[in-house]
Design a protein that fits this description.
The complex is a heterodimer.
Chain A: H1 20-35, E1 38-50, E2 55-62, E3 70-79, E4 84-91, E5 96-103, E6 107-114, E7 126-133, E8 139-150, H2 179-195, E9 199-204, E10 216-217, E11 223-226, E12 238-250, E13 253-260, E14 263-270, E15 272-280, H3 282-285, E16 293-300, E17 303-314
Antiparallel strand pairs in A: 1-8, 2-7, 3-6, 3-8, 4-5, 4-7, 9-17, 10-17, 11-16, 12-15, 12-17, 13-14, 13-16
Helix pairs in contact in A: 1-2
Chain B: E1 3-4, H1 28-41, E2 49-56, E3 60-67, E4 71-81, E5 84-90, E6 97-101, H2 105-108, E7 115-118, E8 131-132, E9 142-151, E10 159-169, E11 172-173
Antiparallel strand pairs in B: 1-11, 2-10, 3-9, 4-7, 4-8, 4-10, 5-6, 5-9
Classes of the chains: A mainly beta, B mainly beta.
Chain lengths: ~325, ~170
């Protein structure tokens, strides 16, 4: 089963509660819950590990998901050893859930999944940690990966996201349709969307020595490092979240400026996870795309700072 | 059975619907639910995604791009600096989308000089058309394998900063 659009003109005065059109609406409600994914990050680059020690290669933010749906990483890889392991951890900073996948081909694609149970959704995004382990003396490299939510059927009763399924057998033939049912059906899609915010921009680089990589600096003045771009955003005023991960060498701390359309967002003087929210309309997000910027500087301390992850995500609201 | 247009009702921020009994029977109620559901499956909450990168001369990247229901084509925007040839193709595409940028490298090969290239938003099979990501319309979520190739052997300069995939929602058969 999947979401099946209903033909225009199916609902006319006199449509009884037991008609197939009503059943279709109720079926679609459940199918939307069970099939609508969310995309948290799309990474392009090379994430490579040599040797048999488990090594972290990427961090990424995982917002919402109060309903504890499965998080999946779809990756492409190649290796010169016989066996390698890809591990995904989902954590809130203290508790964690983890899953692993072993790959045995020289190249191909694979998935690794985690269904959270030790951690729960909150207004502070959880985050994912991707690790690789190769055969001793050999390497494994991921060429790109897609982090997404893979939904399953809703539980009975009301979910933490406030979604609740509707039975299609609430009434006998020609009986009135309870307004509570209509209200549920109207609200459920909003709850599903709210619990499954997606990224509109993601930039990931391999976790490594902060004195190297694609984007790192020792400069104390802002350095233009990459020009971001965002897809067409809805015209309404919405809240978005910037989620960044910064690695540092020695005592250095970083500040990051992000210019997206008419918005200037700053993450100031920190390292590790740096995050904030901002409110914008689609028009403001998509204005002057050719002038978008991400800037990075060493804001305090000494050493080097390296930007490893920057996501712009819808904020549940 | 006819065509059904995408739904643009924004699904975020949340707009809770409060009903107060008694509610008069009205065919607009199930019709309204259907409109919200259709927006959730189509243009109301399936925005595009941009993959940020710093892809250099001679590199090829293979990406798995999410494709929402009813979408067959995705508009591409490419942010690049310098000179070189960008080629983007999918497993369902006819003509690869290609941009060949030439000129004096010394004036262009700086991050702040990065510029935006793009396809049109008009479905078709021209080089300038959006990328075809599905063989034909379907009402399911899927992923499409997209290959991004960057070559600038003659001049050796240039970096791709981002590739944006914007779904083009069209009316499709129900």
């Amino acid at each position: 089963m999947a979401y099946t659009p209903i033909d225009n003109g199916s609902f006319i005065p006199g449509t009884p509660g037991t008609s197939t059109a009503w059943d279709s609406v109720i079926t679609n409600d459940g199918q939307l819950y069970a099939s609508k994914p969310a995309t948290y990050a799309l990474a392009s680059g090379t994430f490579v590990v040599s040797g048999s020690s488990e090594t972290i290669v990427a961090y990424f933010g995982l917002p919402a998901n109060y309903d504890q749906q499965t998080i999946q990483v779809l990756f492409g890889y190649n290796q010169d050893g016989g066996t390698a392991t890809v591990k995904l951890q989902v954590t809130d900073g203290s508790a964690a859930d983890a899953g692993t996948t072993t790959v045995t081909s020289a190249f191909g694609s694979g998935t690794v999944s985690v269904t959270p149970s030790s951690t729960s959704g909150s207004s502070t995004p959880r985050y994912g940690i991707l690790s690789l382990t190769a055969t001793a003396g050999k390497f494994i490299a991921l060429g790109s990966f897609l982090v997404s939510l893979v939904p399953t059927t809703a539980r009975a009763g009301e979910s933490p996201s406030r979604y609740a399924g509707v039975s299609s057998t609430w009434a006998a033939t020609e009986a009135p349709i309870p307004s509570g049912v209509v209200e549920r059906l109207r609200n459920n899609p909003f709850y599903v969307a709210k619990d499954r915010p997606s990224a509109i921009y993601s930039w990931l680089d391999m976790s490594q020595d902060p004195r190297g990589g694609l984007v790192y600096t020792t400069e104390t003045a802002y350095q233009f490092v990459v020009r971001p771009f965002v897809p067409r955003c809805p015209p309404v005023s919405k809240t978005y979240r910037v989620w960044a991960y910064v690695e540092r060498y020695n005592t250095a701390k970083a500040s990051i400026q992000i210019v997206v359309g008419n918005n200037l967002i700053e993450l100031a003087d920190d390292f590790g996870i740096m995050t904030t929210t901002f409110v914008s309309t689609g028009g403001a997000m998509n204005a002057s795309a050719g002038l978008n910027e991400i800037r990075l500087k060493l804001s305090s301390g000494s050493g080097s700072v390296a930007l490893r992850t920057l996501q712009i995500l819808e904020e549940p609201s | 059975m006819g065509l059904k247009a995408p739904g643009y009702t924004p699904m975020s921020p949340t707009q809770a619907a409060a009903f107060v009994d008694p509610v008069p029977a009205n065919a607009a109620h199930p019709g309204g639910v259907d409109a919200i559901q259709h927006a959730t499956a189509t243009a109301g909450h399936n925005f595009g995604i941009t993959v940020g990168m710093l892809q250099r001369d001679g590199e090829t990247m293979t990406l798995a791009v999410p494709v929402p229901p009813s979408v067959v084509y995705m508009r591409l925007s490419v942010v690049m600096q310098g000179v070189g040839t960008v080629s983007i193709d999918s497993t369902n595409n006819g003509a690869a989308k290609e941009w060949a940028i030439t000129g004096p490298k010394q004036y262009q090969d700086f991050p702040m000089a990065a510029f935006v290239l793009g396809t049109t938003g008009i479905p078709g099979d021209l080089t300038s058309s959006p990328l075809k990501v599905r063989s034909s319309a379907a009402w399911t979520w899927t992923t499409e394998v997209v290959t991004v190739t960057f070559t600038s052997a003659a001049s050796g300069g240039g970096v791709i900063h981002a590739v944006c995939f914007d779904p083009i929602f069209e009316a499709q058969l129900v």
